[in-house]
Design brief:
Elements lengths: L5 E9 L2 E9 L6 E8 L8 E7 L8 H5 L3 H7 L2 E5 L38 H16 L2 E11 L1 H12 L7 E4 L9 H11 L3 H5 L3 H6 L7 E6 L5 H5 L1 H11 L3 E6 L6 H20 L1
């Protein structure tokens, strides 16, 4: 068992498995953190592989498990699904609840280095080390079979976490990811606040730049709606596409006509992503 005490907040039977919500005092974020965990029915017979989902701005641990339609696929495939919160909450930081794209709900999966954010906003360490250690210790999960995906800010997180931790995951994918946050308004705002003025520190959390710099990458699957309101200004998949082409990284970028940034888009194609990860986790 891990050293961190988990408190179960809820437990619901669904698709013959169990959807549970837990909270715990995080050593990384120094605040209580919450996550959702779906354990498929196959977990009753032994350890199962695990798929991490990282959500986007304004979301929490509930959005994906409630809206994406992923749990039926997870139950049939025998894959556990983990959906952590998107930031620590109620940190007492002045201004942390003033805007949707900074502070609460906007952890951006980085380790903040600038005060006052640096004490609590350490989501990179939480996702990369702390949460997997807890889950592998306390649940029937096979830590050797992990994959990761996410949406928007969480798509950025999934790409960066996998790029900076080669060998940790067997596959990675994303819906509508922020592909180069150093070159979009969301990233510029958040990185300035969390990381300060040192652009080199920003580059270390930019998927396109990491690939350009030679970071080893798994093949990448991305679904992107062509009618996404954030496509041109914030997401910029063309920058990731160019970096992958230059570095020889296999990228399957699927531009979906008529689709937007919402969970309706995610729910439409979630089955394809679940099967994609199953091929790597179960094959």
């Amino acid at each position: 068992m891990s050293d961190e005490k988990l408190t179960r907040l809820s437990r619901t039977r669904t698709f013959d498995g169990w959807l549970e919500t837990y909270t715990h005092q995080s050593s990384s974020c120094r605040r209580p953190m919450t996550f959702s965990l779906f354990m498929p029915p196959q977990a009753s017979a032994g350890k199962v592989p695990v798929l991490y989902w990282l959500s986007g701005l304004t979301c929490n641990h509930e959005n994906f498990v409630h809206k994406a339609g992923a749990l039926e696929h997870a139950a049939k495939l025998g894959i556990a699904v983990v959906a952590p919160d998107t930031s620590p909450r109620d940190n007492g930081i002045d201004g942390e609840d003033d805007s949707y794209d900074l502070g609460t709900g906007a952890g951006f999966y980085v380790n903040a280095t600038r005060s006052p954010w640096s004490k609590n906003y350490r989501m990179f360490d939480y996702i990369t080390w702390e949460l997997p250690d807890i889950l592998d210790s306390d649940f029937r999960l096979d830590g050797e079979r992990r994959s990761i995906f996410g949406h928007s800010m969480g798509g950025h997180g999934a790409l960066v976490v996998s790029l900076k931790n080669p060998g940790m995951f067997r596959s990675v994918s994303a819906f509508s990811p922020i592909c180069s946050p150093t070159r979009c308004p969301w990233g510029e705002k958040i990185f300035s606040a969390y990381l300060g003025d040192d652009r080199a520190a920003w580059d270390a959390y930019d998927a396109a730049l990491l690939i350009e710099a030679g970071a080893a990458s798994l093949p990448i699957l991305i679904d992107q709606g062509e009618d996404d309101d954030f496509l041109a200004e914030q997401l910029k998949p063309e920058l990731l596409e160019a970096a992958c082409k230059k570095a020889g990284v296999a990228l399957d970028l699927r531009m979906r006509k008529g689709y937007d940034h919402s969970y309706y888009f995610i729910a439409t194609f979630i089955g394809e992503h679940m099967r994609y990860h199953a091929d790597h986790l179960l094959g």
